[in-house]
Amino acid sequence: MKNVWVINNSKYGNSEKLSNDIAAGLKDKFNVKVGGIKTINPEEIAGDNPEALIIGGRIIAMNTDRKMTKFVKGLGTYFEEQIPKIATFYTHSASWKERFSKGMKKALEKSTCIGDFCQDILEVTIQGQKGPAAEGQEEKIQNYIKLLLEYLEE
């Protein structure tokens, strides 16, 4: 079974919950591990030789979480080969704007270990800063999981 990592930098638990939801949707077809950047070491991810990395970012003050982008930029020093597939998701409490994801996109482009980048992203609206997810987000999450299954099996 192919290894897939779902990583996040959750403050109030929303990105972590979403990571676990995504992992649950992929676990029948992939060996999925979930971790927060505060507790996992990039060497652990690299040692697992993942087929895919799914990155969850928070949108803070209309920008991608800087701690997550720094983590992603630094991944290249731990990998000898590229991670074949990369996908992203975001949690936010404002009206979604495509520019919110530009910081992560730039970080991924600068990392030397990034292979194919899934152009479809998941953005989940959170109620206020602390959440939970706003009503109506569950269908969006389930559709993204289906899309990920197709993307990862290509």
Report on this structure.
The chain has one domain (3-153): Flavodoxin domain (Rossmann fold, 3-Layer(aba) Sandwich). Strands 1, 2, 3, 4, 5 and 6 form a 6-stranded mixed sheet that branches. With 154 residues, it is an alpha/beta fold. The protein starts with a strand and ends with a helix. The chain contains 5 helices and 6 strands. The model has no long low-confidence stretch (mean pLDDT 91).
Which key features would you list for this structure?
154 residues, alpha/beta, Rossmann fold, 6-stranded mixed sheet
For the record, what is the CATH homologous superfamily label? Flavodoxin domain
Tell the overall outline: globular
SSE ordering: EHEHEEHEHEH
Strand tally: 6
CATH uppermost class:
Alpha Beta
Topology-level CATH name: Rossmann fold
How many structural domains?
1
The computed structural class is alpha/beta
Percent of residues in beta strands: 25-35%
Count of individual helical segments: 5
Percent helix, as a range, is 25-40%
| Distance between the first and last residues' Cα | 14 Å
Largest sheet properties: 6 strands, mixed
Radius of gyration, Cα only, in angstroms?
A: 14 Å
Indicate the CATH architecture: 3-Layer(aba) Sandwich
Average pLDDT for all residues: 91
As residue ranges, the low-confidence spans are: none
Summarize the structure.
The chain has 154 residues and is of the alpha/beta class. 35% of the residues lie in helices and 29% in strands.
Produce the secondary structure layout.
Layout: E1 3-8, H1 14-26, E2 31-36, H2 42-47, E3 52-60, E4 63-64, H3 66-74, E5 83-92, H4 102-110, E6 114-125, H5 137-153
